[in-house]
Structure formats: C-alpha cells, structure tokens
Protein 1
Amino acid sequence: MKITLSVFIFLLTFLVSQTAIADSILGNCYNRSGEPCGKIHRISTSWNSNTAYPENGKYSLFLGDSVDSRITVYCDGSTAGTVNVKGDTRFDLQCD
C-alpha cells in the first residue's frame, strides 16, 4: 500500500510539473473595424507550428513548451506583433 501511494504521488508531481512548464498565449482578437474575430482567422507564432482559431473574439494558443523568450505572433500569416512569453501570457491582437 505504501509503495502504491508513493508511486501515485510521484506520478502526480511529475504530471503537474510538466503542465506547469508549458506556456501559452491568450487574448482578444479584433478586426480593423473593432469587431471580434471569428474562426476564419488563423493565429500562429514564430515559436512552433501550433495554431489557434478565435471564437467570439477570443483565442488561446498552447505552445507546448516553456518559451521564456520574445516571439512573433501572426494572424493569417501577417505579423500582429511581438510578445515576451513566460507562462500564460496575455496578448490582444488585431487581424486585418
């Protein structure tokens, strides 16, 4: 019983620590006229090939790693800006 509990605690600690180091970018997305973006826009970064599609003007892009650096954010392939990512980072953007 003690071994099973120890293994469970070890696995739980490992899983929580792995989740804690994965960064993401999240925020609001607006078009040029100030209206919320829809799923027709694709949000991506210079960090990796992950993408997000805004829903009701909000997006969340999971980066999968600990970034801890400055990266470029793109909307439909055009530069939307740069952001210093550390943990869950808020970045509102405009898609043209």
Note: The radius of gyration is 17 Å.
Protein 2
Amino acid sequence: MYHFGYGGTEAFEQRLFDVKPGEIIFIDSCKVDNIEKSMLGTDIRPVEQPDRKTVLKGLLPHLKGTGWDKRAEDYLKGLK
C-alpha cells in the first residue's frame, strides 16, 4: 500500500482510525488551492478556521429531525 504525500505505508497507517455507528468525529479543517489541477498539483494544508464547533453549529439546521441532531447537540455541549 502506498499513499502519495503521506510518507508511505507506515505514516499512512498511523492516520487510520475507526468511526463507530452514531459517532461524530471531526478530522480537521483545511484549505485547498489549485483544485483545477490534478491531485498531484493540488495544495492542501491545515487551517485554524472553521473549527469543529463552527462546523457542527452550521450543520445543526440540516440535522434537525434526522436523529443526528441530539448527538450533535450533545457533542457541542462537550466542547470548550
């Protein structure tokens, strides 16, 4: 297995994680530049904003009535 840009198999496997049913996980925010080019020319880098709280608050209206709204609200309460 090889994943370009992540330093090979070992570095890639260290980034793997499981998401269980009903679990909410925020991975990161990133900025994507040069998207018109191929993936090899695309520049993806982490950014501070939006943070997980901002993203989740933006999703809340779309989650209403889906069963995820309660999970999202509970998750938000646990954030600082």
Note: The beta strands are 30-33, 43-46.
Protein 3
Amino acid sequence: MKLTTLDIIKLLPFEENYKRSLIDAFDSLSEDQRYEVTELVWSTYGALYRIKYNANMEKALSEIADQRITLGNDFYKKIKEKTDQDMDKLESQQSTPINLDQTRQELQNILNRSKN
C-alpha cells in the first residue's frame, strides 16, 4: 500500500476532531508549513513503525527461544508483514502506549502560524 501524508494523518492515534482539522488545513498551508507537517508526520509514523517492528521481533525471538516457532527463511518477511498489519490497524485502536503530545503540539504550532 502506498501511503501519503494525509493517509498517515488518518492512521496516527490522534483524536478524530484533531485529525479532521489537520487534514482540512493541510492544503491551505504554505509550502514551508506543508513540508514541516509532512516531515513531522512521516517521522512520527517511522518511529511508531520501528516500535511495533521491534516489539514483533522480540515476541518472535521469545517464541523461538521457547520453541513455539522455528526460524525459517521467511522469518524477517513475516515480522515485516505482521508489523505492516499492526500499522494498518493503528487507526482503529482506541488507545496507544505512545505519547504523541509533543508531535501534536508541534503540528498545532505549524497550523497556528498559518492563521497569523
């Protein structure tokens, strides 16, 4: 699946009203502001992806150690596929252990500059 910045905004675990306001304002932002929002959104998505990937890797390695699964040629491919599935489900999750307050504040600061 090919993702856009707006797709990622929809996936990130922000409140629905905040997502909508960010999406609605995106096209009216200056080029510099859109760049900043894009960089921040993709960076946040990448960080969430790495967290999920590492968690899936740790779980799989634990299962190998406990001999519940075996290490095959497609081990890393399965970890990536599981992580991709987890990221697709991110939007529907009600809560996340990841604090996105700083990201939200930075995005809000960018949006506020467009109103000045």
Note: The mean pLDDT is 84.
Protein 4
Amino acid sequence: MILLGFLGVQALRPSATPAPGLPATARAWFQAYRSASPQLVCARLLSPALAALYTRAGGGCAGQIRRLRKTTVRLGRALQDGDTTVLTLRGPRGSESSAVLDHRHGGWRAAALIGA
C-alpha cells in the first residue's frame, strides 16, 4: 500500500529557536513520531495539510497514525537539502518508506509520509 501526502512547500524563513513542540532536528522528529501519542503526532509533527489528508482518509488522523505504527521501522539515511529532509525508514523484510520533512519556524514537520 502506498500512502502519498506530498504537499507543496511554501518558502518561509525558519526562526533560530524551534517553535514549542517542534523537534529541532530531523532525527529528533523521528524519535518524537515513534514515541508521542497519535493525537500529538497529528497536531504537532505533521503539517496541517497532511493531518487533514489523513483525517479525510477515514478513521481520523490519529487512527491512521495508529495503523501506520503497527509496522516497526528503524531510521535509515537522512538526506537534507536546505529546509527539506528525506528520512529513509526501513521496515520488515527489506521494505522501505520515506518521511519528507519541512523545516519551518525553527522545527521539523512531515509534509509527506510515503510507504510501501
């Protein structure tokens, strides 16, 4: 199953200090995604547009996050280009997925989660 939620990125100059609740690094985003409540993931770690997309998919955003978390993943590579980072996530049996993160307001949020 492929989940696509890539959304256009608007250029906003990030502030020097992360906004409250936003991870300061892409790797910290992954740790927060794995450990935070699904409600917090939807409210703080996903872009508003991505959270809305998951809500419209049925079962609510938190329900979608719970379903995604049933698959154990570990962090692979992190490739950064300016205010965008792509995290490679490795799952069972060699599967890979990606999280496209956007740096805004001094912290990181997911603009897209793409899984196989």
Note: Confidence is low (pLDDT under 50) at residues 1-18.
